[in-house]
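question for whoever is on the cluster today: can someone run the full assembly for these? two chains, 895 residues total. i dont have access anymore since they changed the login thing
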Amino acid sequence: MIENVDLSLVDWSRAQFALTAMYHWIFVPLTLGLSFIIAITETIYVRTDRPEWKRLTRFWMTLFGINFAIGVATGIILEFEFGTNWSNYSWFVGDIFGAPLAIEGILAFFLESTFVAVMFFGWNKVSKKFHLASTWLVAIGANLSALWILVANAWMQNPVGMTFNPETARNEMTDFWAVLFNPVAVEKFLHTITSGFLLASVFVLGISCWFLLKNREVWLAKRSILVAGIFGLLSVLSVVFTGDSSARTLAELQPVKFAAFEGNYDGKHNAGLTVVGVLKDTGEKLGNKKINDFLFRIEIPGFLSVMTKGDRDAYVPGLKDLIYGTPDDPEIMPVTVKMERGKLAKDILDDYKRARMMNDREQVQNIMQFMRSERFIEENFRYFGYAFLNSPEDVIPDVRIAFYTFHLMVLLGFMFILIFVLALFFLFNDSLMKNRWFLRIAVVTIPLAYIASESGWVLAEMGRQPWIIQDLMPVTVAATKISPGSVITTFILFAALFTVLLVAEVSIMIRQIKSGPIH
Amino acid sequence: MTLLISHLFLQHYWWIIISLLAGLLAFLMFVQGGQSLICTLPRNELQKTIIINAMGRKWEFTFTTLVTFGGAFFASFPLFYATSFGGAYWVWITILFSFIIQAIAYEYRSKPANVLGKKTFDTFLFINGSLGPFLIGVAVATFFTGSLFSLNYLNQVTWATPWHGLEALTDGRNVALGITVFFLARTNGLLYIINSVEDSEITGKSVKKLVMNSISFLVFFLFFIISIIVSPGFAVDSLTGSVSLENFKYLHNFLQMPLVLILFLAGVVLVLYGLGTTLFKGSRKGIWFTGPGTVLTVFALFLIAGFNATAFYPSLYDLKSSLTIRNASSSLFTLKTMMYVSFIIPFVAGYIWYAWSAINKRKITEDELKGEGHVY
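^ ran it for u. tokens below:
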């Protein structure tokens, strides 16, 4: 598909996209969650007509505004980087992937950007109810925009609702609803937005606790803790629930990723779930990939089998099984077989293109008919991406990154449950001020929420390597053919700019928080 | 045959949507135009704050329109998205760069502890205001003048020069459209300030500046229009799909699509009327004419670039790689699905209008800014 793939170009293109995505994701979850927290507090203000609630709302709204702008700025780059750095991908799947992006713009971005102006500048210009409606619409718009980009991302993890058209050499959408209600999309959307709610709740809780530590704005802080505590607790429970169902779906649709984040090389019956563990290099290799083992591990026996198949004795395949096949699970197809099937699909596509160029109409018709057959699609095209792999072990992602990001995210998730329960307990017990240790912990928890949130995306994206589209397209053939020097230059420019802007954002935030709400 | 006709209809339908978005984007770049004036228009810091706040309350519309323009292109003509963004890398990256620094500049410029200082953020606004419209103009001009790329049998792009889009700056017609869009943005920016700011000194100075900016705009606009009308255009053979050069192609397009010519002329007349009524009658409502005029003119220009069997993204390097609305579009199914989504656009336009009116019903003054909790 691409002659002389330049890995340094692919790596730099990946690095640039990862840089942009990770910076973007520093700001987006706070926008997703804080928009709803503001909407809730403003609703209380409108219902009670108490000016303290307006003051509280405006304080969090100021922080929302600072964060919102930089989220928007980094977001525009992501959209266009699909074209600038992944143009082969953009054509291969643009017929499917572009639609959610366009819908995102038409349905969500305009809603968000129109009413955010009313939210910030409309206090003295529109009625209370119109203003409140605007605030809710901003929250809905922000979360709707997350829906569409996550639908697009989910399609890359589990391509559905399309067919390959040899004439145009691309995938074309055949079922919009299958794309929208892709099981990965539904779980990803719920898991991602609730993780945003969770992060924003931790943020509000932590800052409110800081005010209590300083014995300032006590009324505002306690009311904020009440809202963030309830909202955060509901969110984190939802995160755990959707995370659990996501893992089950992953085990079925992306078993290699699932095995990687469990650090599971050898399949077994009655497989245990690792709660905490430290990996060590065994010195052995699978192809050119190092094999890791556990230096230390705490596991729940049998739980992985129960979690994935609902049966304690069920067989959970490891990475070796998924690559080489295993008699314990004959349904697993070895990667070498997938590579042969993918290569056949690619050869047939090449034959088709050759026949087209030679204007051999009969041959074109015959191949076209074959390529549209159920058999070709099921047995060959679904493994199309394997044609570009050099060895079966290429399908293994970085196990260490997948393992640590997954476990870090899960452990922090459970810690947040405890934080919210304690916050509400101390609040209702009226003992928050006495438990200063908790106030301090709540403050230092803020960065942990960001780490958990970023870990989730690192796992999702690094864990599915080498695929840009699961089984259909590896990243090596998706990148734009451009000099690596150009991408390195833009990477450095973006890294420098984003870092400076992040420093400015954090500095402004800290100053605004220290200044407190307007009197 | 029915399938072909409906696909063709949808390809035209989506080119109309893209053209409309382009027109709206050109108008909404009055925000950039206003930003490019912040060094010369205000006499003091207060006036600068007033002007920046006038623009700042609308920056997100421009930004969102740009994002939607990109998203709609990706969805409806993905081959253009892949070819142009991947190929003309440096032009698009520079445009994006200028928009990143705009988004945060408004929010951060007047905030304490902003690290870079107000001047830096104001410089960001100036850079975006100047470079953004200019480069978007240059990029759009290549729809008429062509680019240097080829596509292989899998539609993967190879750019023929290491400049990756910056070579467009060597064609005077591209530069002319870039300058045209720059001065158009400034002209609309001045008209918007005249309309929405209640400060006699700012208004008076804006009217004076309007003279030079609108004349500059008109000169470069005429140069560009005449140059593309007399240049050969990129015609597509409807049966074979092959692309060839045709003398006076864009003039032919105007003449063969009289409705488009009428829209174009109506747009130009509206722009001229808006300018005339402001400059000669002292009206403050010029923007209400130049705005729709800008939308109509750009809309018509996009239609002559893509309709009437014309390659809308021609390749000078390899004519057969040129993109047309037929070979670059999404599938029938996707375009149809997207068409249903597009039916919501009037509703979106309706609530934007309503919210815009609600915010703009009071003119921006020093007192009005003091009453606002959120000041840029």
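summary bc i know u wont read the tokens: DSSP finds 16 helices and eight strands in chain A. The first helix of chain A runs from residue 7 to 48.
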